Amino acid sequence: MKITIFGTGYVGLVTGTCFAEVGNDVVCVDVDADKIERLNKGEVPIYEPGLEELVDRNRKAGRLRFTTDAKAGVEHGLFQFIAVGTPPDEDGSADLQYVLAVAGTIAEHMSDYKVVVDKSTVPVGTADKVRARIAEVLAKRGASLEFDVVSNPEFLKEGAAVNDFMKPDRIIVGTDNPRTTELLRALYAPFNRNHDRLIDMDIRSAELTKYAANAMLATKISFMNELANLADRLGADIEHVRIGIGSDPRIGYSFIYPGCGYGGSCFPKDVQALARTASEVGYDAQLLQSVEDVNLRQKEVLFAKIKQHFGDLAGRRIALWGLAFKPETDDMREAASRRLMEALWEAGATVAAFDPEAMEEASRIYGKRADLQLCSSAEQALEGADALAIVTEWSVFRSPDFAGMKQRLKQPVIFDGRNLYDPDRLAAQGFHYYAIGRPVQEPTSEGSSVRLATGA
Ligand code: UDX
């Protein structure tokens, strides 16, 4: 099948590449000439496991092409995917200008029937706007051409995006016309395996499903973070509580990890956008607002613990492990690391940071500054630091050489925003170990530890 994808960001690039991988003829269009040039050389601008290989293979097979030529793109595909960004406006609502610009471009150049598919996460009602924009441009051209608009939201997770696309839990198709459901069913047949995963519904419900999924997951995290803060104050251990509640299948073990706040390009943006949509229709979405507020507060918790331990932070040097918003990505959008570094800098401290993938991204965002040292290894970051803070749970941070760590750090103090270690073990090795929602232990050298009162 012939497919055109507008937008070569995370969603567009993964979608286009995976459609090509199953034998389709795919053209990806982007306005960023630089990016297209890099993609045409086989360079993938984002770090996503497995993606580069797939792009390379399909590009060489001639099934995956990249261009800035929108007209050629429109002519190519029966399916026209809109996968451009919807960044938050100042008020938190999603900015639709790029989505609607693509709709206009499609209408301008189309000469036969097209299925226009909204893949970007867009507010409820966007498909209507896309349809209206296409109709308006076609009318101006005096062209009477048929088209359909479909909502087909993407549920990929960064770091596992290729797998999520190739083996989806569900394929949501929102249509107002049964013929498009059948077209989308045929398009997704290679991914719709073992049992029928295609769920079709009306367009508005499909648009809302995407926000509902992200808001539910964000709610689970904020709920656990709230409980962790409570555990801190009550002298309970959130890790026991997590295992205790997760054993109930109605609750489940996934997405109930407390931490230093959720980040990324989806949760913060989508929770805000949904709350904004609610207020536009006169509904005060209190729970959504709280999910967002708890998350913003959670991004301050690690800093508060550091501040409480040291008092004055001026002149202190803090080693930071992890910059990306989660492991297996170099994405730092809304990452907990950013708020922590900024708070440390405001307090006069310096940061020595290491991340397995996000070093370039950090230097792109912050440039050269005296209070940020971007280190070439986790060990180098520790050298002469007053303490270590951890904000991303990369596997390589899970089992460090604690003895070596003690030698490199000026003081054996760890602030762990991801609850990676066993507090008893760390106390026994002589560390002051602060985690999220776990009792702080007094370090001992005898191999036993004493429980202290609560942390920050
Ligand atoms: C998310 C959704 O999972 C995906 O379905 C949607 O399409 C896009 O948004 P992503 O942003 O890639 O995907 O990351 P995800 O793995 O969901 O993690 C989001 C954030 O939540 C990360 O900062 C992560 O550290 C945090 N998180 C996750 C927790 O703090 N605790 C958890 O239990 C799970």
Automatic annotation (TrEMBL):
Residue intervals of the UDP-glucose/GDP-mannose dehydrogenase C-terminal domain: 319-423
InterPro entries, per the entry: 6-PGluconate_DH-like_C_sf, NAD(P)-bd_dom_sf, UDP-Glc/GDP-Man, UDP-Glc/GDP-Man_DH_C, UDP-Glc/GDP-Man_DH_C_sf, UDP-Glc/GDP-Man_DH_dimer, UDP-Glc/GDP-Man_DH_N, UDPglc_DH_bac
Residues reported to bind substrate: 155-158, 210, 255-259, 263, 326
EC number: 1.1.1.22
Molecular functions per Gene Ontology: NAD binding; UDP-glucose 6-dehydrogenase activity
Keywords in alphabetical order: NAD, Oxidoreductase
GO terms under biological process: polysaccharide biosynthetic process; UDP-glucuronate biosynthetic process
Pfam families referenced in this protein's UniProt entry, alphabetically: UDPG_MGDP_dh, UDPG_MGDP_dh_C, UDPG_MGDP_dh_N
Organism expressing this protein natively: Alkalilimnicola ehrlichii
Family: Belongs to the UDP-glucose/GDP-mannose dehydrogenase family.
Catalytic activity: UDP-alpha-D-glucose + 2 NAD(+) + H2O = UDP-alpha-D-glucuronate + 2 NADH + 3 H(+)
Positions that bind NAD(+): 30, 35, 86, 121, 158, 269, 333
This protein's name: UDP-glucose 6-dehydrogenase
Annotated catalytic residues: 266
This protein's pathway: Nucleotide-sugar biosynthesis; UDP-alpha-D-glucuronate biosynthesis; UDP-alpha-D-glucuronate from UDP-alpha-D-glucose: step 1/1
SMART domains: UDPG_MGDP_dh_C (SM00984)
